[in-house]
Specification:
The complex is a heterodimer of chains A (372) and B (230). Chain A has two domains: 83 residues, no CATH class; 235 residues, no CATH class. In chain A, 77% of the residues lie in helices and 2% in strands. Chain A is built from 13 helices and two strands, in the order H-H-H-H-H-H-H-H-H-E-E-H-H-H-H. Chain A has a two-stranded antiparallel sheet with strand order 1-2. In chain A, helix 3 runs antiparallel to helix 4, helix 4 packs antiparallel against helix 5 and helix 10 runs antiparallel to helix 11. The longest helix of chain A is centred in the N-terminal third of the chain and has 39 residues. Chain B has a domain of 87 residues. Chain B is built from eight helices and no strands. Classes of the chains: A mainly alpha (372), B mainly alpha (230). At the A-B interface, helix 1, helix 2 and helix 3 of A face helix 3, helix 7 and helix 8 of B.
Amino acid sequence: MDTWTAIIVNIFVVVAIIILIIAAIIGAFLRQKHRARRALSDQNWYLQISLSRKDALSQWFLVLGSLALANAVYAINNNFGEVLSWRLILLISVLIFGLIAYFGRSVYCAAIGIVGVLIWWTAQTSFWQTKNNIGYSAVIAVPVGLMWLAILLYAVGFWQMRKMAWKRFGVTYAIIGLIVMNLLLFSFSTESGLRFLEEMTTPGGIFDVWQNLVALLVVASLSGAAIVYGWIGKALIKWEAFFATVLFFIFQLLTALPNQSLLIDNHYTSQLTAAGLFWAAIFNFVLLSEILGAIFAGYLRREIWMINFGTVLLIIFTAVKYFDWFFKFMDKSVFFIVAGIMLFAIGWAMERGRRYLAQTIQPPITDNQENQ
Amino acid sequence: MGSNHIQYAKQALKDGKSKEEIYRDLLAHGLKVEEIEDCLADATFNEDVKEEAQKKTVRVVATIGAILIGLGIFSFIAANWQEMTREGKMLTVIFSMLCVDAIGWYLREMAHLEKSGEAMLFLGSLIFGGAIFLAAQMYNTRVYWPDGFLWWVLGSLVAAWALEIAAIRWLAVFAGFVALVWYPFGIFSREIYNPLFLTPWLLLLVAAIVFLVSGFKLRREFLDESPNRY
């Protein structure tokens, strides 16, 4: 290629890139305009991440303001020789996010605050266990507390969704609750999760760490009250309340579990014992029921986002479990052909099912409509 | 409300009829006020989108132009780094910033070329950010690097407050995000741990106040527009 050809090619490439960038930005702006217009008029407005540019910008400012304040507290604490632990600083940060979420009506701050609470719980309960120098068993407070917090979030979310103005907050709480439930159940349904559970049932006991016990009692009371209150106040459908109660007690049972032997290690492989098989079956069954329950609840509640969310989880669940269970035992070609056929069949069934559900459900009734 | 009503509203607007006249006509056809409002919104929607697209195109092209000029200024300084004195570098940057801001102000306020003026003012904020890092680097200032982004945030937010330009607000969000997400790691890894060095927390506190005041002000405006949906 001679010099002139190279220059022309380079100019052409640069011009093409600039045109593409400009087209992409214009397209994004136009889409945003359409979306913003639709968002404010759409009956599903509460599923939008931002309702307008002003909404997004103001929420980002509040998030960054809260983050700066949290960082300032952390820096001051460090300058004064770490008077407070970083976990306490994290809790203070969560409070800052919570207050600003409430006063600024900011769903972004609320979401970050909730994730902060979950991280704080994990860090603090692990710390209490380490501090008391008890065996690994007290760490069971981490997953149990997280599950109860997830149930609490789910119930509070649907309670809040009854108010039209707070509906976006409600959806956020419910989605975070569902994600945490699924992550926990999924973790325990795998081999490494069962190994973790086995270690957590070694002698020592949750009752030896009074801080974890008190914290769990507080969370259990809140979670239990949320289920009962949600069921009585009809924020939860009776099937949801029933399933939440079952989940609550399964995880409550984990805290009182005696020493368990769930896996037998050979040189390179490990095998499930009878108890291991039992718990693997329980967690897999509960996980599948939870995902199908989310789709069913979406249908009963006339909430299309729950159906979509459950559908995505079901696809992930099916794919992961198929790999987990059959990859070692089947011929690879058969494995992939069966996987392909199965996914195609699932896709076909889901497309039909989802369309049927979406067509049969009516727009949700809100308090505004009820008042009319 | 049918499509013929929307067609009628479109035609009437084309014919130069006022909205009051269209209201009267459609009320006479038995439509309710809310239906007429929807009708007019649909009739004017495409025109609004077209006009908005043209405005956006100008804004995008001008903003990309501003970014390219900024890149040019800094690449000029980089190319002549060895030859230029410290004072020369600082004067080039400060002079560029003042010139760009003055041109932006003139275009927006005097020549009424809003989009082009705002693009130049956005460029002024970009040069301001670049100048902070350039000054810190030239004078070997001992600071934790996210501090530079925080100073940039403060300057951008003040500019955004005075000028009400969305692009500068997004610039502040970007700079703030980079600084504030990185900050805890620096403190945690004791990179900036020094009991006598009190600048970080003070700067963070000021940034928090500025962000929160700006955020609540904007939020109030949003909530006034959308009181039942947040």
